[in-house]
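Render this sequence as a predicted structure.
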Amino acid sequence: MDLERKYRNVPGTTVFDSTLARKGYHLNQVCASLLKDENRQRFRANERAYLDEWKLTEEQKQAVLDRDYNRMIALGGNVYYLAKIFSSDGLKFTHVCAQMCGMTEEDYIQMMNDGGRAPAKEKNTGD
């Protein structure tokens, strides 16, 4: 069985591996830069200009501007780095996770308190 193919096909899951780490290196660096207050202030003052200072793809820049966290993850963003963006916006982790799941924050918290989402069953293809 091909492990790489197997973990890349887990429904609703993006595995942050070395391929995504390379793809998202600069995106994650932008996020890490927001640890400094002076950078957060510059980012808030003109997000596009701040993003243009970095070697991001246009798609990565647009995902940040749109606050499309699912897209940022698909483009190599690590959720722990992306947290610097939503923290800069004054948002809680649960708020963004709910948004990513298409739920209200209250429903997301209740789901997690109830044990989380049950994983989808994979069909055994005989590989």
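Summary. Confidence is low (pLDDT under 50) at residues 122-127. The chain has ten helices and no strands.
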